[in-house]
Design brief:
Layout (H helix, E strand, L loop, with lengths): L1 E4 L6 H4 L22 H8 L7 E8 L2 E12 L7 E9 L9 H15 L4 E7 L3 H9 L3 E12 L2 E11 L4
Parallel strand pairs: 4-5
Antiparallel strand pairs: 1-2, 2-3, 3-4, 5-7, 6-7
The protein binds coenzyme A.
């Protein structure tokens, strides 16, 4: 059974990717400035529904399989025009087993249940076919390519944006 839960201190040695970049995957290499506090920061700040950013552990049959996270993006200067943009990093041994899709579906359900967001979105590298398939199976719709949107691993990358709307099934 797959579930999402809060991070605990015992998870940190399994999930910390600062010294083990393969845990985050080649499409999640945003450099040290993206995460100055690391998982210690997640533990100490606490993450509550409606917060600007969040992080939850993906657990499968009692084992840590990876993590999901979100940050807020904005399409205008008012509060209503904000929405969460989600991400996922399954640990290498948990990839290719079909868990990415239910984990991201569950995170979107959680964010709709705990906020007033009308859309939950996800952006992934144009080359990340596994994530694109995973998002489609999780009920997300492909919206288009945003060029030179991400600075990652020393270069600019085009991303595909997907979204699930509150009104979607
Ligand atoms: C991307 C990720 C979430 C996908 O979840 P997953 O559970 O491993 O994926 P699945 O096993 O459900 O596979 C998804 C689909 O992609 C396909 N796929 C997997 N790897 C692929 C590849 N290299 N090329 C093409 N298709 C691929 C699978 O065949 C499957 O297709 P299907 O839906 O037609 O059956 C997971 O692999 C992961 O965390 N990777 C590392 C971090 C990452 O890239 N995160 C996203 C950054 S935005």
């Amino acid at each position: 059974m797959l579930k999402l839960r809060a991070l605990s201190r015992a998870d940190v040695p399994l999930l910390d990717s600062r010294e083990r970049p393969e845990r985050a995957g080649e499409f999640n290499d945003f450099g040290p400035s993206s995460d100055p506090g690391g998982l210690e920061g997640v533990l100490t700040t606490g993450l509550v529904p409606g917060s600007e950013m969040g992080y939850l552990v993906v657990e499968v049959d009692g084992e840590v399989a990876g993590s999901v996270s979100w940050h807020t993006v904005s399409y205008g200067p008012n509060y209503q025009s904000r929405c969460p943009n989600i991400g996922i990093a399954l640990l290498p041994s948990w990839r290719g087993l079909g868990y990415g899709s239910p984990a991201q579906r569950m995170l979107a359900d959680y964010l709709f249940a705990t906020s007033s967001a009308q859309r939950v979105e996800a952006s992934t590298d144009v080359a990340n076919v596994a994530e694109q398939r995973s998002l489609e199976r999780a009920g997300f719709t492909r919206e288009g390519v945003t060029r030179c949107a991400q600075w990652r691993a020393g270069a600019w990358h085009d991303v595909v944006t997907y979204a699930r709307l509150r009104a979607d099934a």
